[in-house]
Amino acid sequence: MTIELSILAAHVPSICHEDQVPDFQQNMVDAMKQVEKDIANIKPDAVVLVSCHWPSTFAHYVDCYPVHKGLLTAIEAPELIKDVPYHYPGDEELGLQLVKAGVDAGITVKEVQDKYFVWDYGTVVPLRYLVPNEDIPVINLSVTLAANLEETYQWGKVIAKVLHESNKRVIFISSGALSHHLVRGRHNMPTIAEHSLDKEFVNLLMNKDYQAAYQMLPQYANMAKVESGGRHLAMLLGIINQEWTPIYLADGQSSGSWNALIAFKRTNTSLTCEYF
Hints:
The chain is of the alpha/beta class.
């Protein structure tokens, strides 16, 4: 079938527990909870999620294990994210198809098959709002430090091809921030210079000038310290094309970073989403 919806999602640790969300981040939580209703209406067969907090060194990893169950304490912020349970089904068959397609394309892609593998908070936090019932199979992906933006972009295109040719309805989630020059104090905004680059990049996305956004990404990632070097954005730009319409839903700061929630809906689908 196809990818029904693509999402750029936030995962800031202070939104992990809804009762602890700061006022200036509440709009992101509210928007994700609304998108959850749209995802439920879609009834997807799988979610494919790339997380900036699963940094692999050399290979692109695909978690193909059929069950994802564990307790997460985030090593970066254990006082905020401690003993958080998760229990989602996986999709081994589709995961292995992604691995094979990546290898066939000459990309270094490897499977993960490990019942003790622990998810990161970039995976867990957005799923707590987007798939709170834990009833949709999830395949999570790493961002790969040895891979440049071009390789990650091409890997995104390979992923898109596999998902479009599968017999499943899929949601793609890119979990990560825009500018990410961190400072102490979660209320802090990016600098004016960094935020101006955020605005220009988002403006290109909202005008569907995805090729220009991709061309901007290397310098933007370097100058604004974009999370994961912009790899999650490169993969997202490999997934979407001119058939996708962006919807800007929410945004907010976190310790000097800027986080946006943007959904991308295919314009040639009959899907009607509540938020859109």
